[in-house]
Amino acid sequence: MEIKIIEEKDNLLRFIISGVTPAFVNSLRRTILSEVPTMAIDEVIIVENTTSFYDEYIAHRLGLIPLKTDLKRYKYITQETSEEERVMNTARLTLDFTCQRGEDIIYSGDLKPIDPEIKPVNPKIPIVKVIKNQKLVLEAIARLGKGKEHAKWQPVSTVSYGYLPIIEINEETCNGCGECIKNCPFHVFKQNGEVKVETPSDCNMCKLCIETCPEKSIQITYDKKSFVFNIESTGALPPKEIIEEAIKILKNKLATFKEQLEK
Ligand code: SF4
Ligand code: SF4
User: Fold this and answer.
1) Which residue, 69, 139, 194, 217, could crosslink 236 as a Cys pair with Cβ 3.0–4.6 Å?
2) What is the number of domains present in the chain?
3) Of 120, 150, 180, which residue sits at a domain end?
4) Distance between CA 118 and CA 120 in Å, rounded?
5) Are 44 and 111 in contact (CB under 8 A)?
6) With contact defined as beta carbons under 8 Å apart, do 106 and 97 qualify?
7) How far is the CA of 177 from the centre of ligand 2 (A)?
8) Percent of the residues in the chain that have a pLDDT greater than 70, as a whole number
């Protein structure tokens, strides 16, 4: 197996993974989506709500706000977790907002975390619009959860993979007209003297280049053992940590499977 990172930003990671099967990359994708835990608000105690939204509506919105997650300090709560441990593994955030102006918006940034590390990823997520003297006072309790319980605990906004395209230009028939460079929406081709394939991992296989090449010089197939893997985090955890966590979970599942089989 080989891995080559092709793009890395704060919440985005794209890499080529070679020498694996679709089943392997899909296991990784499914584990990321449904098993890697993140923090999300799960309980809300409404003290006062004179806004135009129902309590339930506000609680639902709060649940969908991605929170920064610390997997080293917080443990996933199960039915076996004691009451004391439950309390230790929950994080609280409070909100006390009274509209002083004609109208205003209560944002995620108005939530005040008791643990400064467990705070909204983005302070500019609107919760509710308010007018003068409307008030919202509440306490929110967050815990680690998994995407298989509710989508609010998914660590990613998207995780996908596709076969790595193999794009070949027949150098004998290519006349260097540059039509493929002009028509490719993802700038896969570059002209440096002759026309070359520069970034095949960006190709989405739309086949526009094949259709518009006057000499029919382009052929596109794909590598059945190489995949372009894309992961975009909600910001709760960095993409690399999400993958590492998913691998740990998969390894544990396989170890349990082996153990059961041996029994
Ligand atoms: S469109 Fe076809 S002929 Fe023109 S440069 Fe591209 S590959 Fe060559
Ligand atoms: S198939 Fe589409 S995306 Fe891929 S190289 Fe051709 S034009 Fe570009």
Assistant:
1) 69
2) 2
3) 150
4) 7
5) no
6) yes
7) 16
8) 100
DSSP secondary structure code for residue 52 in this structure: S
Structural domain for 215, as ranges: 2-34+157-231
Quick check: is 140 in a domain?
Answer: yes
Is residue 260 assigned to a domain?
no
**Is residue 247 assigned to a domain?**
no
Tell which one of 170, 171, 177, 194 to mutate to probe ligand 1, the residue whose CB is within 8 A of the most ligand atoms: 177
156-210: pLDDT as tens digits: 999 999 999 999 999 999 999 999 999 999 999 999 889 999 999 999 999 999 9
CA of 183 to the centre of ligand 2 (A): 8
State the distance from the centre of ligand 2 to the C-alpha of 137, rounded, in angstroms.
Answer: 53
Pocket test for ligand 2, best of 184, 198, 204, 222 (most atoms within 8 A of CB): 184
In this structure, are residues 249 and 35 in contact, taking their beta carbons and an 8 Å threshold?
Answer: yes
Q: Which ligand is nearest to the CA of 166?
A: 2
Q: Whose CA is nearest to atom 6 of ligand 1?
A: 180
Query: How many angstroms does the Cα of residue 224 sit away from the middle of ligand 1?
Result: 26
Task: Read off the CATH number of the domain in which 87 is found.
Answer: 2.170.120.12
- At which residue do the structure tokens 């940034």 appear? 109
Do 45 and 125 lie in one domain? The reply is yes
**DSSP-H helix ranges across 46-178:** 55-63, 83-88
Residue 193: what pLDDT? 83
| 242 in any annotated domain | no
At 192 the pLDDT is 83
CA of 126 to the centre of ligand 1 (A): 49
Q: How far apart are CA 17 and CA 229, in angstroms?
A: 7
Mark whether 61 and 135 lie in a shared domain: yes
Residues with CB under 6 A from ligand 1: 169, 174-180, 195, 213-215, 217-218
